[in-house]
Specification:
Layout lengths: L2 H21 L8 H22 L9 H26 L1
Length: 89
């Protein structure tokens, strides 16, 4: 992976984290920086899973890969929000 690929993955991850947070119902009490970290990890995991299923490189926009990434981000935000909320109270 080249430097531009890493930078692109980070930018996409930031967007994925924000989308994942929007998908999760209710108010999440985690900091925005943690949401963004979850997004980057979800983007990388989503890309890995999409490549395992062979849907990581399609013509046009990779909607299936994007959906997988957002699902990972939503799951990550839900888990971390639950853990973070319990830890603070």
């Amino acid at each position: 992976m080249e430097v531009t690929g890493i930078i692109t993955a980070i930018v996409i991850g930031l967007i994925i984290g924000a989308l994942g947070r929007l998908v999760v119902p209710g108010k999440q009490t985690i900091p925005i920086w943690l949401t963004l970290v979850i997004g980057v990890v979800a983007a990388l995991l989503g890309t890995l899973v999409a490549s395992l299923f062979g849907v990581d490189d399609t013509s046009g926009i990779d909607w299936i890969e994007l959906l997988i990434q957002v699902v990972f981000a939503a799951i990550g935000v839900s888990i971390v929000a639950g853990m973070y909320g319990r830890r603070r109270h």
